[in-house]
Structure prediction request, 473 residues.
Amino acid sequence: MSIMTNNNKTYLDRFPAAAGIVGIFSAVALVCESRFPISDDNGLLAAFFFHFLIRAGIFLGLALMLQEMKAGLSAIGLAFLCSAITYFFTKDWKTASSSLYMILYLVSILMGMLPFVLLVIMAGGGWKRDKLSVIIITLFVVQAALDNQSAVMAAQYLFNSSTESSVRIIILRIVVAFVGGSTAMIAISELMNFVKTDDFIKKTRLLNLANTPSSFGNALAFWVLKLALFIYCLSLGVYAKNLPTYLNSSFMADFRVYFTTFTLCSIAGITAFVLAIAWYLRKQMFEHILMYNLSNRIWIWLFSLPFAGFIAWLISLALGNRQDTVRERKSTLEDYASGSARTVLIITGICYLLLFINNFRQAGLAGAIVILLSAGLYFLYSIERAGFYILFWLQVLACLIAFYKLLTATEATHNSSDVTSAGLLFAFGALGFAYTMLQLPVFHPTMFEYIPAGEETIEKQEGQDLFADYKLN
Prediction:
């Protein structure tokens, strides 16, 4: 089987228009929904209609991005039908039992996924049985992310606002819906790449030097995904913090199974979504610097910073020289791999020194030791490939420890500060392993491979690693 390089990020050229559609539909739906109290029957009907309106914006945006208008409109029609079915099952929610709540939850998941399944089938050219498990898992994760409301709950605490109709809360809900819908469109577009291509898409550290998305579309996608990373990690913290309440509160006793199942499924789905966002961002940042001839390793480190990353991205557009050929981008990749991360390590070392001094003053020797251990792990990560796996799994371990504390909380402690701290640890642990993934190209670019250029076309022999000759040494 011969493999040729082609641009599989053309959907980003149409992403700004698609994101604009999602933003408009979300704003109209949520502003109108805020005028209907959910407590009465008309309010519930309105809520389902406006929920459908947000989904309709996502499917219309996907139809534009994928250039599959028939598939997108068909998905909108099915989404309307699914919303009507879900409303029929849930209109008597006030008198529903715990077991009925579980059925309603399963129905809502299925009804949410079906329109996406139809879109993938129609746009992808039919059933792909060999890839069905990946398709179903991806759509479940997307569904869990789109139904996420915990970020809004967290912001209500931060803004000290308990009023659903508060202007600030409406704005926040619009931002969450816009970011969630836009991120879902990118996820589905990448899923379509997987459905339509060969197995090389399964390689998680594979670069496509032929990807040449538009500057604006690529920058907007970067901004949306960076924001999504924080929103979904914040959501994980809120879900994790609420878990002990659902497990132990006597007030929740009748609906314990439902709330616990919902929370665990949300945590699993959103954790997978965070990892997927980090994977996509890492690939996007690496391919961006190759496209703009930026061979200094500090660029990816700057892009990964929480707030300065987007400014660094804009600066890179002004300073970089966009390269039109795969051969030029391959040359930049070789220059990048042969370079050094010395500048990054110096800056990071200064930051750790300042943190060490501050923690020593504030928390004494114990606080200083924590910073020293953190610095040691980070520098091990920078010099040894094994350091990446050690740091990654330590952050996963921090999440598991936090999760264990949440599961073992009692009725007397489920609202304690320890539970809040465990929820925060879970959120920061998730954010930590995402950022560990993001910075891998800064220190270990030779762990990456690239898709061969058109002039390097090869034939795959049975049992042969197709990309064995395209690893950086």
